[in-house]
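Anyone up for a design puzzle?
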């Protein structure tokens, strides 16, 4: 009889201990130490993902330019970063027969909101000091060489302008244009000697009539 009472007390003690343990875990789960933290991590990741989408949305993948004047199809065209004026003229169908191509720097970099006005030969002939600028948004301008200039600017001259230099024919003018694009523009007039076919003697003839 004493043994039964003792075993009964032991069972009650064990049961009470189990209840205490169960109650502890229930209370811990109710406080939510783990779940809110996981929820915060998920919310934070979603916020970062949303921010990334907004940045991607705000970064323009295309730019716009207005091409006017003596081109086949004047209008507003989209282009990609790194394109040149030549790409925009091509999009506009190329020059018309009346276009004065010597007033357009095809190697210049295209910029967003740029307006390119291609003049006709008659327009430049009738205006002794034509403004052949490609106007960019914000009021900045990219100037092309003026016919009254004493020196030829190696970084802005057209291929036709380069052929006016002593000893420079169409082939060498084309090589100068290619080297200018490769270098991202000449940094000094001495860089002209990097062009194939232009050595020290040719440079000596040119150094007084060129600039950058």
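Challenge accepted. My sequence:
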């Amino acid at each position: 009889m004493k043994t039964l009472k003792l075993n009964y007390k032991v069972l009650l003690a064990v049961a009470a201990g189990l209840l205490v343990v169960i109650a502890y875990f229930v209370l811990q789960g109710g406080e939510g130490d783990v779940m809110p933290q996981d929820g915060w991590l998920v919310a934070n990741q979603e916020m970062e993902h949303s921010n990334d989408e907004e940045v991607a949305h705000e970064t323009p993948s295309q730019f716009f330019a207005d091409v006017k004047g003596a081109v086949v199809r004047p209008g507003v065209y989209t282009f990609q970063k790194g394109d040149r004026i030549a790409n925009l003229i091509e999009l506009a169908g190329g020059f018309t027969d009346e276009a004065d191509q010597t007033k357009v720097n095809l190697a210049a970099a295209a910029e967003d909101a740029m307006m390119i006005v291609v003049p006709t030969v008659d327009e430049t002939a009738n205006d002794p000091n034509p403004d052949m600028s490609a106007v960019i948004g914000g009021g900045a301008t990219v100037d092309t060489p003026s016919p009254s200039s004493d020196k030829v600017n190696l970084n802005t001259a057209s291929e036709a302008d380069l052929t006016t230099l002593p000893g420079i024919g169409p082939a060498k003018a084309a090589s100068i244009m290619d080297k200018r694009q490769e270098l991202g523009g000449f940094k000094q007039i001495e860089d002209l000697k990097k062009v194939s076919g232009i050595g020290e003697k040719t440079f000596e003839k040119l150094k007084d009539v060129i600039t950058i």
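A detail worth pointing out: Strands lie at 63-69, 75-79, 114-118, 134-135, 141-142, 152-153, 210-211.
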